[in-house]
From TrEMBL:
Transmembrane helix keyword on record: yes
Protein name: Uncharacterized protein
Location in the cell: Membrane
CDD domains (UniProt xref): Clp_protease_NfeD_1
Species of provenance: Anaeromyxobacter dehalogenans (strain ATCC BAA-258 / DSM 21875 / 2CP-1)
Domain NfeD integral membrane: 270-395
């Protein structure tokens, strides 16, 4: 069959009305496909739009130290990689280390993740170093009962820098810190004049006053209210500026790692001092009683933890030398005749070393008055108890070393024993000092009788009869 005939047969098989409707059907299908493509191109992906907003929550409570730096930098990295809408930092601090504060502020200013700092909960404060963290936030919030301010640099012992390093150094530290405060406040559009006053005059304000002075952006009683009030605020600068969308966001807490918890625990100078003293005690006990293993291992572990703590707390090297000297003198008391002078000198070195262990005089290192101050219960009782214990051990060792020799032949004379056989002028056997000896006696001694050694010749002891239980 030719092609023409096939076409005519096909046209004849299809009804005329159906043939007329075919062009309309094709046009409808083409229009529907075009509309579907246009809709698919214009609509965003469904999954990101449907995903609820999340914020990461970190908590800083206590002095700002190197451990705080590690914790907050890790939280910022987690917020960035986890696509969180913001990082919320709940802050309650009396102050902290200047170097650590600068590191945190630099990280907050450089990150792409919006940072919200909330000074809370009730009664919280953003003192000293906390002022800079609050000023550096994209959104600064405060609990109604919180306060902020008093950022004048002082030493760790709470004294003015001028008392420790002189007026010139104090002025340099103050000017540098004031300029730092102004620059951070200006970068976030906050009250730079007040920030400088907080450094130079140690001014402190309540939450409502901070809001009025444009130091804080909002006042909120809890994190949910913080997010609700922060929603829609502009964050970022230039091309990266955008509106913050965090109202009703899910709050996920950021838990510190074991390492970060350990650094936070070791950041207490009292803990570090006790670890140092206990570590030295363990090493000293190992010297007194070699082979015990446990005291030496425990002491070494405590010293390791103390050295870790030195990463976040400034330590006076001279004080460490004093502590080592004190332990050395107490150990020497057991081996030299010093009539107790070495022990007394060692105890004095331990007390003085503990007293000056933490370096509280470095200018500008610490904002918090007394943040590094050791407790009197650590300065006096702990090294004193350690000195008494080591002195007692040294006295016992010295007493044993100076006692008459009780081993070998001289140690057998006068010792009590038991006749294992009949002993006479010829020969016999006796049990003395846990050992079996050849024995002889001028007078016959029956088997099982108590004997006392009067002389030793080689491997033979000369014994006499003794009353049972006496020697």
């Amino acid at each position: 069959m030719r092609l023409g005939e096939i076409a005519r047969a096909t046209r004849s098989a299809v009804p005329r009305r159906a043939r007329a409707a075919l062009p309309l059907l094709c046009a409808g299908l083409l229009a529907a496909g075009a509309a579907a493509r246009a809709t698919g191109a214009a609509a965003p992906p469904a999954s990101p739009a449907a995903r609820p907003a999340r914020v990461l929550s970190a908590t800083v409570k206590g002095p700002i130290t190197g451990g705080t730096v590690e914790y907050l930098e890790a939280a910022l990295a987690r917020a960035r990689t986890g696509a969180f809408a913001a990082l919320v930092v709940t802050l309650d601090t009396p102050g902290g280390q200047l170097d650590a504060t600068r590191e945190i502020v630099q990280a907050m200013l450089a990150t792409e993740v919006p940072v919200i700092v909330w000074v809370g909960p009730a009664g919280a404060r953003a003192g000293s170093a906390g002022v800079f963290l609050t000023l550096a936030a994209d959104v600064a919030a405060m609990h109604p009962t919180s306060n902020i301010g008093a950022a004048h640099p002082v030493t760790g012992a709470g004294r003015d820098v001028a008392e420790e390093a002189g007026k010139d150094m104090a002025k340099k530290v103050e000017n540098d810190t004031a300029a730092f405060a102004r620059s951070v406040a200006a970068a976030r559009g906050r009250n730079a004049d007040w920030a400088e006053k907080a450094v130079r005059e140690s001014v402190s304000v309540t939450a409502e006053e901070a809001l009025r002075l444009k130091v804080a952006d909002l006042v909120a009683a809890d994190l949910s209210e913080v997010l609700a009030k922060a929603d829609g605020r502009k964050v970022g600068q230039g091309a990266s500026a955008r509106a913050l969308r965090v109202a009703g966001a899910a709050i996920e807490p950021y838990e510190p790692t074991v390492r970060q918890r350990l650094l936070g625990f070791l950041a207490d100078p009292n803990v570090m001092a006790i670890l140092m003293l206990v570590g030295m005690l363990g090493i000293a006990v190992e010297f007194y009683h070699p082979g015990m293993i446990f005291p030496g291992a425990a002491g070494g572990f405590c010293l390791f933890l103390a050295f870790l703590a030195m990463r976040v707390i400034p330590v006076n090297v001279g004080a460490v030398i004093l502590l080592l000297t004190g332990v050395g003198l107490l150990v020497a008391e057991a081996y030299v005749t010093a009539h107790g002078l070495a022990g007394l000198a060692g105890a004095a070195c331990l007390v003085l070393g503990t007293l000056f262990f933490v370096n509280t005089s470095a200018p500008g290192d610490w904002f918090d008055p007394g943040a590094l101050r050791l407790s009197p219960w650590v300065i006096w009782p702990t090294p004193a108890a350690l000195a008494v214990l080591l002195a007692f051990m040294a006295w016992n060792i010295a007493r044993v070393r100076r006692a008459p020799l009780r081993l070998g032949a001289p140690g057998l004379v006068g010792a009590a024993g038991e006749a294992l056989s009949e002993i006479g002028p010829a020969a016999g056997e006796a049990f003395v000092h846990g050992e079996y000896w050849q024995a002889r006696s001028a007078a016959p001694i029956p088997s099982g009788a108590a004997v006392r050694v009067v002389a030793v010749e080689g491997l033979t002891v000369t014994v006499v009869a003794a009353a049972p239980g006496k020697g």
